[in-house]
Structures are given as structure tokens and as C-alpha cells.
TrEMBL record:
It is found in: Membrane. Residues 1-21 have a biased composition (Low complexity). It is a multi-pass membrane protein. It comes from Sesamum indicum. This is ALA-interacting subunit. The gene is LOC105175115. Residues 141-156 have a biased composition (Basic and acidic residues). Keywords: Membrane, Transmembrane, Transmembrane helix. GO terms for cellular component: endoplasmic reticulum; Golgi apparatus; plasma membrane. It comes from the Eukaryota. The chain crosses the membrane at residues 49-71, 308-330. Residues 1-32, 141-167 are annotated as: Disordered.
Length: 350
């Protein structure tokens, strides 16, 4: 075969490559926007910039942490765990049997005020190991029924606490309402009753929008097994604030809910006698019950986490700033010429 003979793959006059249409390029049209060449702030993180930034963060965060921590420490809090102490000694081997029986469940507790407590003093009950965030529990309610008297038969999401045995709708229906907390507390100081104000303890938006003023309890806790407290059938749901507070479910298994407010000051050394009714069954799931009396500050209740978090971040930034400063002073490193960076040069070829 003659090596000088033109091959069809060599792009000769008769080749398919020369006669076929030229393929269009998929390269996008050049623009400064698509190539990310618009003017922008592109700081160079030199040692001075990094050290200054860490020092600035520490100067801001450390004072905020100190102030927050002092505000939290100014809150006076009394916590009394009582679920074990309020079971008679001869019934402590069968706590569930006692709490489900008809025996008297009155319990007397004594609290001593450690520091001066300014009004209002908030009374909370705290439950541990109670999973209000369980999916089936959270869904077991009917918001339409709570708002409108014409929707009292809208009980589909409320099973198994939707209707009575004879088919009548339960208002309010669902497991959340059925398990309403029913321990009660009475307070006395020097043989004088301390009034607990239970109005205004719920969110105003809940009272006005989620619970109807013309919706009244019906057939509630009428079954053989009662889950918690009963409701006054003569009061609309918008005025039953214990229920409203309880039905705002908690995200964590340990939570506090507001029971009421004591609107008088308590002095350091005051002895508070508490008469409580230990009715709520937390013994079936090894739950804990606590009574909490607390004041507030401008930051809210007692919460050391915010202050500790700010102090930790501020202290860490200060430590890093000192480390970088020592490295920079003891063993400095020569910086490169920033003019060679791509964004400091004009784009070529366009």
C-alpha cells in the first residue's frame, strides 16, 4: 500500500469532517458576574487582623457573660422534690397502687426562704422523665374543637380520648388534655394564707386565638380511668388557664410549667408551709415532681448557661489571640506579596 495515498481520516476534501456542520460551543458567554469578578471585599487574614478580631470578640463577650451570670445569680429559687416524701412509708413498695387509690393524698412540706424574694414570685411545677414531645401525644388534640363550639365533633385526631363509651364527643379531647396536671398547692406564712394568683399565667395569644370563649368542657374525665385534673364545665376554655398552660407542650422530657404567682415579698428566713395534694401519677414511668418558687431578673429566670457560654467563647478567643501574638512575636513569618493574588490582577484574555 502506498503511504502517500490520502486517508479518509486525514481531513481531506472528501472527508465527512470537512463537509459536516460545525458543532456549537457550550462555553457560556463571558461576564464579570458569572466569573465572580465583580467588586467585592476580600480581606487578607494577616496576623494583625486575626489577633485584633479575636481580641475584639473577647472584649465584647466577656463583659456580657459576667453581667448575664450575675443577673442569673441574683434570681432566688427554691426547689423542693416531693414525689417520694409524699408517699406514706407503708405504701412506698407500691407507689402506683397508692396514687391510684382513694386514700387521702394530703402532704405537708416546709420551705425556708434563703434570701429576700421580691414579688412577683412565680410558682412552677417541674416534671422529669415526662415526654410531652412524643409524636402520638403531641398530635392527640383538636385545635378546631378548642376554638369553635360548632366543631365539638371534630375528634378524629384525639383517639383514644375522642368520645365516651356511648359515642358522645369529649371536649377538650385528646391525650394532652386528658393528662392535665392535677397536684395542688396551698401556701401559708406565719399562719397567714398566701394567695396564689392564677390569672394571666398563660400566653395572651393562646387565650385569644386558640381557645374559644364559647367552648365549654363536655364529658371530660367521665371515663373509668382519669388521667388528671377535671375542668369546671361552667367556665369557657379561654378562662381555664391551667389547661392552656399544660397544652403548650414541652420540647424536652424535663420541663417546668407555671402554676401561679405570689404577689407579696418574702423575707430571708421566712418559713413557708405548703399543703399539697399529691394526686398526679408519675410513678408509672419513674417520673419526678418538684415544686419551684422563683423570682426573675431582666434576663428571665435562673439560667447560668447564657453567661457561661459567653464567658467560654470570650475566654477562648482571648486565649487564641495571646497564642497567635506570641507566635507572631517570637517566630514571625514573612508574608507573600498580595499583588499576586488573582483578584488583584486584571482578568486577561477577555
Amino acid at each position: 500500500m502506498n503511504s502517500s495515498t490520502p486517508s479518509s481520516s486525514a481531513g481531506g476534501p472528501g472527508s465527512a469532517e470537512s463537509t459536516g456542520p460545525r458543532r456549537n460551543s457550550k462555553r457560556p458567554k463571558y461576564s464579570r458576574f458569572t466569573q465572580q469578578e465583580l467588586p467585592a471585599c476580600k480581606p487578607i487574614l494577616t496576623p494583625k487582623w486575626v489577633i485584633s478580631t479575636f481580641l475584639l470578640v473577647s472584649v465584647v463577650f466577656i463583659p456580657i457573660g459576667v453581667v448575664s451570670l450575675f443577673a442569673s445569680r441574683d434570681v432566688v429559687e427554691i426547689v423542693d422534690r416531693y414525689e417520694n416524701e409524699c408517699i406514706p412509708i407503708n405504701s412506698r413498695n407500691d407507689k402506683v397502687g397508692f396514687i391510684q387509690s382513694s386514700q387521702d393524698k394530703t402532704c405537708n412540706r416546709t420551705l425556708t426562704v434563703p434570701k429576700h424574694m421580691k414579688q412577683p414570685i412565680y410558682v412552677y411545677y417541674q416534671l422529669d422523665n415526662f415526654y410531652q414531645n412524643h409524636r402520638r401525644y403531641v398530635k392527640s388534640r383538636s385545635d378546631q374543637q378548642l376554638r369553635s363550639p360548632g366543631s365539638e365533633r371534630d375528634t378524629d385526631p384525639c383517639s383514644p380520648e375522642d368520645t365516651t363509651s356511648d359515642g358522645r364527643p369529649i371536649v377538650p379531647c385528646g391525650l394532652i388534655a386528658w393528662s392535665l396536671f392535677n397536684d395542688t398547692y396551698d401556701f401559708t406564712r406565719n399562719n397567714q394564707q398566701l394567695t396564689v394568683n392564677k390569672r394571666g399565667i398563660s400566653w395572651k395569644s393562646d387565650r385569644d386565638r386558640k381557645f374559644g370563649k364559647n367552648v365549654f368542657p363536655k364529658n371530660f374525665q367521665n371515663g373509668t380511668l382519669k388521667g388528671g385534673a377535671s375542668l369546671d364545665p361552667s367556665k369557657p376554655l379561654s378562662e381555664q388557664e391551667d389547661l392552656i398552660v399544660w397544652m403548650r407542650t414541652a420540647a424536652l422530657p424535663t420541663f417546668r410549667k407555671l402554676y401561679g404567682k405570689i404577689e407579696v415579698d418574702l423575707q430571708a428566713g421566712d418559713v413557708i408551709d405548703v399543703t399539697l395534694q399529691n394526686r398526679y401519677n408519675t410513678y408509672s414511668f419513674n417520673g419526678k415532681k418538684k415544686l419551684v418558687l422563683s423570682t426573675t431578673s431582666w434576663l428571665g429566670g435562673k439560667n447560668d448557661f447564657v453567661g457561661i457560654a459567653y464567658l467560654t467563647v470570650g475566654g477562648l478567643c482571648f486565649f487564641l489571640a495571646m497564642v497567635f501574638m506570641l507566635i507572631y512575636l517570637i517566630k514571625p513569618r514573612q508574608l507573600g506579596d498580595p499583588t499576586y493574588l488573582s483578584w488583584n490582577r486584571n482578568p486577561g484574555g477577555h
